[in-house]
């Protein structure tokens, strides 16, 4: 990741003059793009990744201009949107092995039209909006969106079967994949600006997309614009075995200072799970898109922090230098733990971020926001560089996103598979209401065959509280699973932090469990 001064940015402005439109001539007159019936295109324009970076640089040197917003799109609510269907015979790249592309109409949640172009042999042609691309009921508000009153809100890449999609870009700079289990859950976005501050969070927009197909790969280019920044993004997307991989390159130019800048941000939902009892208003045992934050830090430590739905906003920073990876995971894949046969929480993908190059000093930040339902995304995780984000800076960063059903590696370390809580004391005796009991289950091949007398021990660290009792033992009839039981007492009115790792013969047997007890 690189920073450059404002002077360097201004000095590069002339470079965009070197990119002309001569490449447009390479497009043979009358060349047929792999387009469905009814798709129409604008005139060819030269396009390259270098051109887009220079275009973002030039945009950042000018004052921010709010994008066009179609207020009438507010009439296309959830019900109206469900009755609008993109015509299958109007797909872009129809019949492609990696899937054809369909486009989203504007709606109440996405009212800013985006420009979408297709790239072929160095030339880009805009895909022209038309309401005729959609099958729409006669009384649907979309029928009124003719001419320049309409536009696309985003796009999705369909499964090869044509049933369902596996990748979608829609709203602000959000995007997501259904992953290997074909079920949408958490989202990623390009960048986070002032998350969970006392000021209003800013959401820069992807205003333009360029789509290019290569064998077994989809290339997506995007221009981002916002009050305090402009930037260029490139996504190289492919299926790799049992996962979906996105190699991301980004170049960001800051128009102004940003107090809390988040790179590679992930957004998810955690209402309740095994750690705490669910609300009496809901019948399901657990409801969440993700159940924990996993981190592989620059010191080669694996850390697991179970997610929580706090009573008040919580922000935690895990300081690091050149992180190896972090992500929001859905570890619990047991259907019976959710009993949800409508939205299938046990199939929600995990999302892992692998930084490329030197990301330097900073912290993985976790934001947990109170919620009373499953409709709000209340979890955010991102990398925050240690150096302040100042006006005139250029940020270059690269990373890989992996949409998974399993873990990002095959480490021999045992993993945390459950965290539960209740009143303290000895089971079978009267509970101690002033003591909290925490029960943590670890599971992994390195624990198999080990018994109570095998020398397995635990390192426990606490801050602003104390452990009054603890035990560690193998779970009966579950070879490879061990249980840590802790009775803890936080200091009055304080947030207590805990950290625990299983070890044997001086070597770690497990990843490190992190937890917070809040007042």
Notes on the structure:
There is one protein chain. The chain has two domains: 2-404, Distorted Sandwich (Beta-galactosidase, Chain A, domain 5); 415-517, Immunoglobulins (Immunoglobulin-like, Sandwich). Mean pLDDT is 91; it is low at 4-32. The longest helix has 12 residues, at 49-60. Helix content is 4%, strand content 43%. A hairpin with a 6-residue loop joins β8 (152-158) and β9 (165-170). The protein is mainly beta.
SSE layout and pairing:
Layout: E1 2-4, H1 6-11, E2 45-46, H2 49-60, H3 78-82, E3 85-86, E4 101-105, E5 115-120, E6 123-126, E7 134-135, E8 152-158, E9 165-170, E10 174-177, E11 187-189, E12 191-193, E13 205-214, E14 217-226, E15 229-239, E16 244-254, E17 261-268, E18 270-272, E19 287-288, E20 292-296, E21 302-306, E22 314-321, E23 325-329, E24 350-356, E25 361-368, E26 379-385, E27 394-404, E28 415-424, E29 432-443, E30 457-463, E31 465-474, E32 481-490, E33 496-504, E34 507-508, E35 512-517
Parallel strand pairs: 5-13, 21-35
Antiparallel strand pairs: 1-27, 2-6, 3-7, 4-8, 5-6, 8-9, 9-10, 10-11, 11-17, 12-17, 13-14, 14-15, 15-16, 16-27, 17-26, 18-19, 20-21, 20-23, 22-25, 23-24, 24-27, 25-26, 28-29, 29-32, 30-33, 31-32, 33-34, 33-35
């Amino acid at each position: 990741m690189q920073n450059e001064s404002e002077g360097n940015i201004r000095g590069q402005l002339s470079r965009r003059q070197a990119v002309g439109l001569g490449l447009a001539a390479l497009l043979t007159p009358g060349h047929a793009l792999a387009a469905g019936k009814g798709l129409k295109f604008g005139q060819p324009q030269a396009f390259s990744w270098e051109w887009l970076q220079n275009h973002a640089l030039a945009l950042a040197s000018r004052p921010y201009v709010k994008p066009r917003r179609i207020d009438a799109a507010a009439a296309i609510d959830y019900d109206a949107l469900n009755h609008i269907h993109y015509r299958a015979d109007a797909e872009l790249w129809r019949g492609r092995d990696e899937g054809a592309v369909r486009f989203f109409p504007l709606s109440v949640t996405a009212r800013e039209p985006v420009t979408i172009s297709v790239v072929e042999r160095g030339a880009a042609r805009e895909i022209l909006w038309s309401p005729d691309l959609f099958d729409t009921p006669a009384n649907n508000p979309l029928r009124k969106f003719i001419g320049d009153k309409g536009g696309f809100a985003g796009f999705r890449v369909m499964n090869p079967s044509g049933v369902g999609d596996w990748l979608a870009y829609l709203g602000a700079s959000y995007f997501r994949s259904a992953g290997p289990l074909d079920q949408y859950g958490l989202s990623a976005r390009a960048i986070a600006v002032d998350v969970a501050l006392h000021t209003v969070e800013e959401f820069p927009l992807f205003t333009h997309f360029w789509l290019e197909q290569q064998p077994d790969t989809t290339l997506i280019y995007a221009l981002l614009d916002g009050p305090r920044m402009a930037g260029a993004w490139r996504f190289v997307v492919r299926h790799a075995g049992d996962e979906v991989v996105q190699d991301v390159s980004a170049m960001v130019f800051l128009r102004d200072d940003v107090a809390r800048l988040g790179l590679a941000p992930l957004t998810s939902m955690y209402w309740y799970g095994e750690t705490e009892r669910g609300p009496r208003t809901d019948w399901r045992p657990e409801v969440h898109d993700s159940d924990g934050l996993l981190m592989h830090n620059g010191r080669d430590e694996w850390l697991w922090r179970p997610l929580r739905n706090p009573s008040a906003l919580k922000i935690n920073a895990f300081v690091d230098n050149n992180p190896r990876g972090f992500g929001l995971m859905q570890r619990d894949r047991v259907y019976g733990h959710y009993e949800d046969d409508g939205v299938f929480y046990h199939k929600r993908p995990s999302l892992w971020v692998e930084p490329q190059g030197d990301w330097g000093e900073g912290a993985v930040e976790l934001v947990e926001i109170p919620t009373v339902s499953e409709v709000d995304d209340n979890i955010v995780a991102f990398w925050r560089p240690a150096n302040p984000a100042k006006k005139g800076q250029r940020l270059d960063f690269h990373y890989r996103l992996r949409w998974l059903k399993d873990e990002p590696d095959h480490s021999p370390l045992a993993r945390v598979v459950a965290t539960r809580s209740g009143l303290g004391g000895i089971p079978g005796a009267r509970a101690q209401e002033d003591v909290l009991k925490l029960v943590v289950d670890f599971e992994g091949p390195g624990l198999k065959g080990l018994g109570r007398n095998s020398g397995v021990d635990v390192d426990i660290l606490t801050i602003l509280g104390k452990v009054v009792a603890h035990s560690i033992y193998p779970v009966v009839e579950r070879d490879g699973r061990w249980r840590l039981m802790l009775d803890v007492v936080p200091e009055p009115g304080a947030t207590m932090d805990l950290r625990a790792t299983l070890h044997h013969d001086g070597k770690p047997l497990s990843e490190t469990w992190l937890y917070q007890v809040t007042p």
